[in-house]
Amino acid sequence: MEKIVILTGAGISAESGLGTFRDAGGIWAQHAVEDVATPEGFTRDPHLVHRFYNARREKAAGVAPNSAHLALARLEHEYSGEVVIVTQNVDALHEGAGSTHIIHMHGALAGALCAACGHRWPAPLKMDTNDPCPACSVPATRPDVVWFGETPYEMEAIWAHLEEADLFAAIGTSGNVYPAAAFAQHAGRAGAHTVELNLEPSTNVRDFAELHHGPAGTIVPLWVDELLRH
Ligand code: BJW
């Protein structure tokens, strides 16, 4: 029984209509990363950060999984081995497609987090920093997402999955953000065959043994068909 670990990034959701971060006209071209994706930015102007995430939550609620998300769900259900998705994405499109073994290493738009006590609960569509925490009542609500300088979720489990992987694939990620950008090297050194599926070569393309370049909605279903044939 073979284990497949798949890292996904913003590029897999691009054809569903969600913007990527670093492509021309992407999210970081419209918003300063230090203002909306750091704990310091949240301390400076929590209302700005909530406006940014409320708008993204609203947008994400109106989009549907594309053929790449659907192909990964099919892989999980039809493959004889184990399939684990580690996503950097905060949208719920893998869940919407029917995948079940998903780790949201950068959190989720669907989550709220109390900056005072660490309690986590389902986020309403619109959040504000004055919303009281249901556990401690302190008005310190923030999106349950991982900002620069914070520790991504479930890292111990992720490193263990990477070390057990027979096949590691990265889909739709530019390879600029650590620790995710180190996963291919880590899995490859532990013995996995490494595959990149991305619109263009990523920053760490040299860490991959096999490359498929093109839109995820086209190349991921073909790759999954091939895996299920063997
Ligand atoms: C398509 C496509 C189509 C387009 N089909 N493809 C110096 C050196 C090394 C590291 C550091 C350093 N200084 C600081 C650090 C650490 C820092 C970091 O990496 N900084 C770099 C900028 C240098 N990292 C952190 O702080 C992280 N924490 C950490 O390291 O803690 C220490 C620790 C490590 C290990 C164990 C324990 C502790 C936290 C990082 C948090 C990132 N947060 C964000 C925001 C999350 C919430 C939100 O969504 O708002 O996460 S930033 C943003 O970038 C978001 C994404 O998940 C992440 C990655 O972006 P992604 O997905 O790769 O998107 P893009 O836009 O970059 O790329 C899209 C790709 O798709 C492109 O290649 C396109 O070509 C492609 N594409 N259309 C296929 N149709």
What does the model show?
The protein has a 6-stranded parallel β-sheet with strand order 3-2-1-7-8-9, with helices on both faces. It has a 3-stranded antiparallel β-sheet with strand order 5-4-6. The protein folds into 2 domains: 3-17 and 64-106 and 152-229, TPP-binding domain (Rossmann fold, 3-Layer(aba) Sandwich), CATH 3.40.50; 19-62 and 110-145, SIR2/SIRT2 'Small Domain'. The two termini are 13 Å apart. α6 runs parallel beside α10 and α8 packs across α9. It is built from 10 helices and 9 strands. It has helices at 11-14, 27-30, 33-36, 39-44, 46-61, 67-78, 93-97, 155-164, 183-189, 216-229, and strands at residues 3-8, 82-87, 102-104, 107-114, 120-122, 141-145, 167-171, 193-198, 210-213. It is 36% helix and 20% strand. The model has no long low-confidence stretch (mean pLDDT 97). The chain is globular and about 55 Å long. With 230 residues, it is of the alpha/beta class. The chain binds ligand BJW. The site of ligand BJW has 36 residues, from α1.
Annotate the secondary structure layout.
Layout: E1 3-8, H1 11-14, H2 27-30, H3 33-36, H4 39-44, H5 46-61, H6 67-78, E2 82-87, H7 93-97, E3 102-104, E4 107-114, E5 120-122, E6 141-145, H8 155-164, E7 167-171, H9 183-189, E8 193-198, E9 210-213, H10 216-229
Parallel strand pairs: 1-2, 1-7, 2-3, 7-8, 8-9
Antiparallel strand pairs: 4-5, 4-6
Helix pairs in contact: 6-10, 8-9
The protein binds ligand BJW.
